[in-house]
Write a structure and sequence with these properties.
The complex is a heterodimer of chains A (415) and B (375). Chain A has 415 residues and is of the alpha+beta class. Chain A has twelve helices and ten strands. Chain A has a four-stranded mixed β-sheet. In chain A, strands 2-3-7-6 form a four-stranded antiparallel β-sheet, with no helix packed on it. A two-stranded antiparallel sheet of chain A has the order 9-10. In chain B, the strands form three sheets. Chain B has a four-stranded mixed β-sheet with strand order 1-4-5-8, with helices on one face. Chain B has a four-stranded antiparallel β-sheet with strand order 2-3-7-6, with no helix packed on it. Classes of the chains: A alpha+beta (415), B alpha+beta (375).
């Protein structure tokens, strides 16, 4: 049992470290290091431009999308090399946020289902960040139950005509392309009438409207489709087989192990170490210490769970299911951590201006952004279902709509 | 990176699991639970023959000379099987104290006997309510004789010897505590069995009246050794706890798959699925913290105090969580004597206290994290 690199891993790490040291945008390192949930910004710079410039630089030197094949803009690296890169990239990895969906979900789906010429055309600029992609799955009527989506695609000659609405589309406002899941046959049960496409987000009839989130910020969008035309050549997978295509997208994502989920714990420990309460330093207070210790072991438990998954990759094995707990644990934890940080501030914890709030309002921003982390990318409840069914082998939910044609499924709860 | 046990260690785990499945089924645990025997003597002998008692004891002292990673692997299986034997007191506490502080002669005298299953040892630390603290030690040592009482002493009623923490000075400083080895069959030692919430493991009160005691380690070094022993034992016990948590989770999962209510397996209801998913989450976090503890223990890393506290807290929480919710999944049947759920619940709650309770380790963890940050 050790944390040591193999000789090949050590050589790769040294090469990555040296390249990053020579090329990373150092002027933003401090701000990126201090970024926390709900608070990632660069003063005096457009973070999207900085992110795109960094991604392009990496791509030009062969450090983008490491695990992708070279001919599609990647490096052909092993999964463990990808992890080592993320470790070495450190705070600069936060600049990759805008590419996560494109690189983690859209790219692999294109790789599995697009034609060879399309892959060679579309994947390299996706890898280099010159083109940004989004994923158009969720709808007002299909969130956790994404197969309940209603956006229609109807075939007219060699084209498909799209009408409907998507929601919670991250980055649609700056995306160039998207992968789109549609309903092509409403007369069959819901999973059997879906078809996947990719499209140019600048196509006529596509309208992107930002959502003002509960936190006040706007990271997500609604996307409306009015008679949008997509050539049949941009269909991914067979007609009415879109559900299986989307599962491939999601399975691919399971192999990727992020640089770690954000729990808020390091920020809280720092804060408690310097905060003075009425009767002395916060960190000397028994009640504070008990809360901190409970969060400390969750944070370290997640860290070493991730180390176990990385070890499996290092040995060329597939990581076990342990890693599925990360988002579930971290999501509710960061919400509780933020609320506790405000609790320590007393009445002043309610203040949210950058000048009046403690540590520039870091925990206030965290608190207001946190509810989203427990919903996006699979709610806590869906994550628990996944663990119960795929890890523990418990039965799936009884699906009353399983064999019902989609257009016969009730759409309202109380008539 | 290889943050995992080796294939050989995993093989040893499989061997231990197979051995314990045969030699320590729930029926055997119940012999002790029902008071028919103070511990499972046949199992104890079998563990010695398998080499498990001396797995981390060097060969020159009669052990297998494998190491602490191997001991972690065995510990997990002991916890999983609820083995009703004085393994933790003898191996994690007494043997580790002698390994850390014993003279060559003391090691020669006790370690081969421990490895062979011929001597049961324990650590006599507590004197009534409260958590480990040099201030709480009142047993006095004068001229090689001890006076005072210790309680609770784990497995005290079946132990042949105890490592005893005693006061060799009158102040509250750590340097006024020293350790002694006391043979419990000797004159001046009175042992009274006590009832434990975990009926598969014994507790005792031991009274010393001018009992003959042999110093273990340097005079005044007692608390430093106790702290090291507690850190090591915390990691090893955490593996027992993770083993128990995993088994309780499996029992709950299996019951949820088999039990039908409202015309469906109860494991198809989200309320039950989510409870089991949360049990899996705590067991997984605990296991990962334990692995880090195992790494620190086996490499004698400077991170051991922090890693041990994290493993201890996480594994205590996980075992308590899984054991109580296993009963909840079982419903009424889980609250019967006949079902095994209560044996895990009893063990989970008893071992949560033995090395110092959660609040003690929470405090210790934050102290240790601060020290590391300050360094």
């Amino acid at each position: 049992m050790n944390f040591d690199d193999t000789p090949q891993e050590a050589a790769f790490r040294a090469e990555a470290k040296a390249w990053i040291a020579a090329n990373a945008p150092k002027q933003y390192e401090e701000e990126l290091s201090k970024a926390s949930l709900g608070r990632v910004q660069l003063k005096g710079a457009n973070i999207l431009e900085v992110a795109k410039a960094w991604q392009k630089k990496k791509a030009d030197a062969g450090w983008a999308c490491l695990h992708w094949p070279k001919e599609y803009g990647g490096r052909g690296s092993s999964p463990i090399e990808r992890v080592i890169w993320q470790q070495e990239e450190g705070p600069f990895g936060r600049l990759s946020a805008m590419f996560i969906i494109g690189h983690g979900m859209c790219g692999p789906t294109m790789m599995a289902f697009a034609g060879e010429e399309q892959k060679r055309t579309f994947l390299p600029p996706l890898a280099s960040g010159e083109k940004v992609w989004c994923q158009l799955f969720s709808e007002p009527a299909g969130g956790s139950d994404v197969a309940g989506l209603r956006t229609r695609a109807e075939k007219h000659g060699d084209e498909w005509v799209i009408n409907g609405q998507k929601i919670w589309t991250s980055g649609a406002h700056y995306s160039d392309y998207g992968i789109l899941l549609t309903r092509t046959d409403p007369t069959v049960p819901k999973h059997k009438g879906l078809t996947m496409f990719f499209l140019d987000m600048k196509s006529p009839g596509v309208e992107v409207r930002p959502i003002k989130q509960a936190s006040g910020a706007s990271d997500f969008n609604e996307v409306y489709f009015t008679d949008v035309r997509i050539p049949d050549s941009q269909r991914l997978g067979n007609v009415n087989d879109g559900w299986n295509v989307s599962l491939t997208t999601l399975m691919n994502e399971r192999m990727s192990i992020g640089a770690g989920v954000s729990t808020g714990f390091p920020e809280l420990l720092d804060y408690c170490s310097s905060l003075m309460l009425e009767d002395g330093p916060a960190i000397e207070n028994r009640a504070v210490r008990s809360r901190l210790a409970n969060w400390a072991v969750k944070a370290s438990g997640l860290k070493y769970t991730s180390m176990r998954a990385i070890s499996a990759l290092s040995k060329g094995e597939r990581p076990g299911p342990e890693n599925s707990i990360g988002k579930l644990v971290a999501g509710s934890m960061i919400q509780d951590v933020a609320a506790f940080a405000l609790d320590l501030q007393g009445a002043a914890g309610a203040l949210n201006g950058p000048d009046d709030a403690e540590v520039a309002g870091k925990f206030q921003a965290m608190l207001l952004r946190a509810p989203g982390t427990r919903v996006e990318g699979g709610t806590d409840e869906i994550m628990r279902n996944i663990i119960a069914e795929r890890v523990l082998g418990l039965p799936g939910d009884i699906r009353v709509d399983k064999d019902v044609p989609f257009n016969k499924i009730p759409t309202k709860g109380r008539a | 990176m290889n943050f995992d046990f080796s294939d050989e260690q995993k093989q040893m785990r499989d061997e231990a699991r197979k051995f314990l499945a045969e030699q320590c089924p729930p029926k055997a645990v119940r012999e002790v639970l029902d008071g028919k025997a103070p511990y499972d003597k046949a199992l104890w002998k079998g563990l010695a023959e398998m080499g498990f008692l001396g797995v981390a004891i060097p060969e020159k002292f009669g052990g297998a000379g494998a190491g602490h990673l191997e001991l972690c692997v065995i510990a997990e299986e002991m916890g999983r099987a609820l083995a009703p034997v004085p393994f933790s007191s003898t191996v994690y506490l007494a043997a580790e104290a002698i390994l850390i502080a014993g003279s060559d002669a003391q090691k020669q005298k006790w370690l081969p006997k421990i490895a062979a299953g011929e001597a049961i040892g324990t650590l006599a630390l507590f004197e009534g309510k409260g958590n480990p603290s040099p201030k709480a030690i009142n047993v006095s040592a004068n001229g090689g004789a001890l006076n005072g009482f210790k309680k609770p002493v784990p497995d005290g009623a079946i132990a042949d010897f105890a490592v005893v923490a005693a006061r060799t000075g009158s102040g509250s400083r750590e340097s006024e505590i020293s350790l002694f080895i006391v043979e419990l069959k000797a004159a001046g030692v009175e042992v009274k069995p006590l009832t434990n919430i975990d009926l598969t493991r014994g507790q005792a009160e031991i009274t010393f009246k001018n009992a003959k005691a042999e110093p273990l380690g340097e005079h005044g070094d007692g608390w430093s050794v106790i702290s090291q022993v507690l850190d090591r034992a915390a990691v090893l016990m955490a593996f027992e706890q993770v083993g128990g948590a995993d088994r309780a989770l499996e029992m709950g999962r299996d019951y949820a798959l088999d039990r039908i209510a409202f015309g469906r397996p109860i494991g198809s209801f989200q309320a039950v699925k989510h409870m089991l998913a949360d049990m899996y989450v705590s067991a997984t976090l605990a296991r990962s913290n334990c692995y880090y503890g195992a790494w620190a223990l086996s490499t004698n890393a400077g991170e051991l105090p922090e890693a041990a506290a994290a493993a201890r807290i996480s594994a205590t929480q996980a075992f308590q969580h899984c054991a109580k919710n296993n009963i909840q999944v079982h419903g009424g049947m889980g609250f019967t004597w006949e079902f095994d759920c209560h044996m895990y619940y009893r063990r989970a709650n008893a071992v949560a206290l033995g090395l110092g309770s959660l609040s003690y380790w929470e405090d210790a963890l934050i102290d240790r994290m601060r020290k590391k940050n300050a360094a």
